[in-house]
Amino acid sequence: MGKREKRIEYLRKRKVDIRKFYIEEEKMGFIQFLDHEGTFSMKQPENYNYLYFPIAGEKGIKGAVSPNLGGDIKLNQNAFLMEPVSVENLHNNRSVRNFWCRVEGKGIWSAVGASAEEECRKFTKEQDDSEVTAGFMWHTITRQSKKYQLKSTIESFVPLGHNVEIMHVTIENTGADASEITPVAAIPVFGRSADNIRDHRHVTSLLHRIRTEEYGVLVKPTLSFDERGHQKNQLTYFICGVTGTGEKPVSFYPVTENFIGEGGSLTHPRAVLLDLPGMKAGEAVEGKEALGGIRFAKAVLQPGESVSYTVVLGITDKPEEIDEVMASYDKEAKVAAARNEVETYWKEKVNVGYHTGNIEMDSFMRWVSFQPFLRRIYGCSFLPHHDYGRGGRGWRDLWQDCLSLLIMDPGDVRQMILDNYGGVRIDGTNATIIGEHQGEFIADRNGIARVWMDHGVWPFMTTKLYIDQTGDIEILKEKAAYFKDEQKERGTSLDKEWDTAYGVKQKTEDGTVYQGTILEHLLLQHLCSFYEVGAHNHIRLRGADWNDALDMASENGESVAFTCAYAGNLNDLADLLDVLEIRFGWKQIELLQEIQVLLRDEVATYEDIDAKHALLKEYLESCGHNVSGKTVQVEVSSLAKNLRHKAAWMQEHIRKTEWIQGKDENQEEGWFNSYYDNHKQAVEGYFESGVRMMLTGQVFSIMSRTALKEQVAKICKSADRYLYRKEAGGYRLNTNFHEEKFDLGRMFGFAYGEKENGAVFSHMTVMYANALYQRGFVKEGHIALSTLAENALNFETSKIYPGIPEYFDASGRGLYHYLTGAASWYMLTYITEVFGVKGKLGALTVNPKLVKEQFDRDGNALLTLRFADKSFRIQIKNPEKLDYDAYKVKEAVCDDHIVLTKDENGVSLSKEAITGLDGSIHTITVTLGA
Ligand code: G1P
């Protein structure tokens, strides 16, 4: 069934009268993939209100474009070229990159579809036909007007060579008669900090100094009003234009109020309607809301003839270089070359490829793999679904984004990991304000301590993957400083002796910066958490855990979920220590003397909450200001045992106290309680208002192996029964508590089914899948993972361009698209669990967990990726078309002659063998059979 038929079928099912909706039906688009690289197209995208697409470069300029080219462009929080927008501004067509054509004898046409006239034509037969085509970092929209007999093609991208956004507009006469057009680009210039969208909105327009120059409009405000106070401004915001053959514009409309005219608007501007002349180059205006209004010379287009214009949007502290920038794009061919460069660059940057039985899935995975790059560029703040913050990423994001880099761009990851450890404090907590540069952490000047109790978990997960992918265990011995600010004792007290002169690096008594090994940093993160327990002897929730919205139980809340995660890490760390000892001969490691307290290994202390607190206090007080700097040697083998004891105790304690046995007839259900609230009450179980179950506790009890195998099966049953909703996109984060539980977090204030309150939150669903795959629950993991993809790809409900959104709301719509930690985890799970391709201390291992339908018609699946600086095609052949539980790896060879070693964990190619391979592409063929 084709897409159109599917759509009709869908409308029929929903009992929609198809004839009545003929126009809409014709006008509604579908995502169509055009190749294996993820390039897609879609008709009439402007008929969906919340679509946006990222275009950015690596030099700082980042934009979002909606189908009508709305959306903003900025460098950072304090430098927005276009007005900062959220999704609700996207459909008002105000702040758009407009491009008008005044058509002699006919009227004025917006080539981007943002006009009052076009709004009235929507959903009628007269509506412009439009189609978007897009790939990584490029966006092309075409629009055909019936009334004006003109077609526009607008390409948007950020070139590699300059920190600007390019908008290249081609106008073609598709009519039978000659057409005389006057083109006018009209882009409102905000030119200031996002903070001024409301605060000082008018006063900050008074700061504007606007000039018209030969190519366009330049706005250089005198001051910047932002959170840093009033600063002398150094930036120039500019919108310039040139024709495709190099002609400069003829005049300019630099002031919004003059352009729209009294009573006019940006979708019905009087200057274009009345053909008012613009200002010449070389003029200046002060204190007005500015507009990049650029009028080009009249053009007469014969039938079939076309003409093009290039609009350049930018922010610079070197306005003298704008002419040079314009000269780089003053011919159509130059723009085309720059555009092609962008396409190639990003395609290559995302250097993983997928081939399964499902081309849509393969394309989807390309977008998912691209998303971590977007998150590095946009943080969590700079696309129209503004998640939080002022542009930065949080601690968690920092570490998670490394996961995908380890697969796609591992070159700099070692240094990145080392630098990031510099954010850990000696008390095991970490800096939460992350600077612009790698390894830069900023002291919290507000003195508001907030400790997210999950923060200690992520660095080890990333470091472990790093060690497995590279075999570089030496990194554990590398030294890094500790972060130091006014916070001490895990944010419960202030170090009054500290001041900015001390600096943000932990010092010893003699005033030198103390450096400890990465292993020591890891130990501190885990050991300090181990002792920081609440009334039920699980680690305290503090400010929140992964779920940022569990932020109202800081006194008594406990996170059983992340206690599991810490226990899992302690075990994995112990395993790693064993390897260090046995395979690499490490006997002892050096640790800060004070840490010895934390290494006491007495079960009696583990049981005794007060004793734990006293012990932690002893340690924290010993290093509240400076550390001694003295070190001790600790046996690697006894350290491993020590960590195992702690982990085992935590896990046993959770198994004993937190298991909720299902009340179903067949006793097939059951799950773990994930949290305690501020009233010290367990959060999950059977309540009068219904069953309360949360996904997070299940994910980490499964992943950490706290849940025994039979418990995993019961958890799956319960999750399927209480959390799974196919129409919403998969497993929800929690059931409906029917209570505004302000003794746990703000999430309960959100409508049920939204964001952290019971949405299908991609990140946690992916981690659920990952945990299930790790434990061998392949079918279950596959369902969790594939429903997310199916839902995202089902445009009917998700209403997003390809990729994984942060979450799906109750109706299945995808929100907070692109910028989500889920992308890194999805990609990682797909590669390391589904395809089963992962590093093991530098060796490449393959242990596929693909289910039958993931192979193509011939029973093949293919993954291309880089590993240890070599390119691989990993071909999985399943000639008998068996399902996961029926196949085994029969044989595996690299380049038809190197036989891979086989054991119960699949096949592997040794580190040495990989080193011996040359720079060409190597094919590993893994053959499966019964
Ligand atoms: C967002 C935050 C992430 C947090 C999560 C749950 O998720 O960025 O740090 O853990 O909400 O509150 P994301 O957008 O990464 O999926």
Automatic annotation (TrEMBL):
Transmembrane segments: none annotated. Residues 106-331 form the Glycosyl hydrolase 94 supersandwich domain. It comes from the Bacteria. Residues 345-485, 644-834 form the Glycosyl hydrolase 94 catalytic domain. InterPro entries: 6-hairpin_glycosidase_sf (IPR008928), 6hp_glycosidase-like_sf (IPR012341), Gal_mutarotase_sf_dom (IPR011013), GH65_N (IPR037018), GH94_catalytic (IPR033432), GH94_Enzymes (IPR052047), Glyco_hydrolase_94_b-supersand (IPR010383). The keyword Membrane does not apply. Keywords: Glycosyltransferase, Transferase. GO terms for biological process: carbohydrate metabolic process. One of its GO terms (molecular function) is glycosyltransferase activity. Pfam families: GH94_b-supersand, Glyco_hydro_94. This is Glycosyltransferase family 36.
